[in-house]
Amino acid sequence: MTNAAFWLCLRPQPAASTAEQMVEHARAACLLDTAQRACAAGFGEITIHTTAPELFAQARGVSLCRTDPNASIGTVVSEAAAETAGPVCYAGAGMPAMTAEHWRDLRERIESGQSLANNLHSADFLGLPNTAPLAALQDEAVDNAFARRLRDEADLEITALERTAHTLLDLDTPADCALLSLARRTDVLEIGPNLADALDHWQSPLAPCRERLAAALDVLTEREQQLMVIGRVSATVWAALDRDTSARVRVISEERGLRSRAAAGAQPRSLLGLHGAAVGGAALIDGLVELADAVIFDTRPLFAHLGWGASRGDRFSADLGDPDAIAEPPLRELVAAAAAAPAPIALGGHSLVSGGLLAAIDIAWTRRERQQDSSR
């Protein structure tokens, strides 16, 4: 049997702000690292499907396929499947924490006949023993829905992998860049060379966000302090926080399945959003600081509940803690309050409270050990 194929897909988006440029650069770098690791893992043909193949002109050992920017991601994948037989792994824009060894294990399981995904409800990568079921994805707009659709509409039995930092950590926002920068500095994760170069390139604008996040993570190892975690927090992450940290942890977990609810026309609802609507962004931040010594905050459910028309640039600038770059007035108020708060408040998206937080636990303990060693 031919070794499994490996498909990556990147559609760069317009990047006007510094925060957007950072993420686009880091995602392209992560994709290249993932392609190189897939090659080392023994995958067969490795193909990058992209609207901008010129970004990868120097890539070695990969095929480049220019895609129609107007075609849905599901259409791109289903059309590729029609031309390919055999096992395949689709990995979107790559996974920063998955090493060649992780991908090799995945390849062997796919080739043995298993159908796998890292998350059934919001998949970042998907492995199948043959491409035929991918025809069902025609016109699907969001690749995170691939595993769920194949399970529900193609009656395909898909096994979810163990939830770890390696399988869950995605790269979607500047907060993810900050966490990966900390992981690299503490040797907690094996960061690929292209992504490492990208993080170095954006070191200066990333520094304030990284330092706030580092200060928040340090609370995890302190018995007498409290960390508040807000957003789409799973039971797996909650259990890890309870088991592997010393701090007292408050969790506000809400609106898991945010994208699917919004796509179905349901109005996202957030308990914190109800409070924020009543008191305003600055008072909301003041209240969080009263309750915790540090906050890690997946802000997207709050934004969705409040109906803020924040652009991608505004959301990413919020993650960086740069209110001056934000056009949306209420978001600018909230970010300014968070940046000025006496306790560290790290803002970000879903990955920050998912795979990012699983990696953050190891980062926090490594930082503590190094600090103790340096003080001896």
Protein described:
There is one protein chain. The chain has 376 residues and is of the alpha/beta class. The protein folds into two domains: 5-161, Spore Coat Polysaccharide Biosynthesis Protein SpsA, Chain A, CATH 3.90.550.10; 174-373, no CATH class. Helix content is 48%, strand content 12%. The chain has 16 helices and eleven strands. The protein has helices at 18-40, 73-82, 100-111, 146-153, 165-168, 174-186, 193-201, 203-218, 235-244, 258-263, 271-279, 281-291, 300-306, 312-320, 329-340, 355-375, and strands at 5-10, 46-50, 63-66, 88-90, 116-117, 126-128, 159-160, 226-231, 248-253, 294-298, 345-348. A seven-stranded mixed sheet has the order 3-2-1-4-6-5-7, covered by helices on one side. Strands 9-8-10-11 form a four-stranded parallel sheet, with helices on both faces. Helix 9 (235-244) links the parallel strand 8 and strand 9 (248-253). Helix 11 packs across helix 12 (281-291) and helix 12 (281-291) runs parallel beside helix 15 (329-340). The longest helix is centred in the N-terminal third of the chain and has 23 residues, at 18-40. It is globular. The N and C termini lie far apart (57 Å). 51% of the residues are buried. The mean pLDDT is 94.
Describe the structure concisely.
With 376 residues, the chain is an alpha/beta fold. The protein has 16 helices and 11 strands.
Keywords:
12% strand; 7-stranded mixed sheet; 376 residues; 16 helices; alpha/beta; Spore Coat Polysaccharide Biosynthesis Protein SpsA, Chain A; single chain
